[in-house]
Design brief:
By secondary structure, the chain is α+β, with helices and mostly antiparallel strands. The chain has 3 helices and 6 strands, in the order αββαββαββ.
Length: 190
Amino acid sequence: MSRRGPWVGRRGRRAGLGAALVLSLLVAACRRGGEEVKPETTQPPVGPTEQATVSLLFPGPDGKLHAESRELAVPLGADARVAAVVAALLAGPKTEGLVAPLPAGVTVGDAFVDADGIAYLDLAAKDQPVPPPAGSDLELLRVYSLVDTVIANEPRARSVVLLWNGVQRPTFSGHVDTAAPLLEDRTWIK
């Protein structure tokens, strides 16, 4: 089996059923209601945490991703850890010249890491039914800012499935194929 696992080719019934189950869980979680959490005011992690240095990858003016190290209280569980790290990424950089991968108002709807090491990351934006438009270069930076940050900071994650408001899209916003789990791609990192 290739590194892309059961998603290669026609994706198979087993993968389709597994994805359908995860998607239904994510959609149900998104529909529970509750307060919208803005990235700048991310709620503190629930449950046991540890202080950790995380590496967040932000787009820069040179068309590359730049690492910014940060001390965070991160949950011990993989799902909550992914959510906390991505929330910090969405909150934006502290380094001048770097930018958040997505505009303000985009939050982590849910995160889940399955037994095969596939991290499902649901990005939520209440008034945006689709990801913000971008040219191909910006879209690549946005996608790999998320994917590479997740894989760098969660040891169980080997690939990432991006969802938008509970839906896995064929492309993120028109250019990058997001129909299958994405592997780390350090091409964009300076």
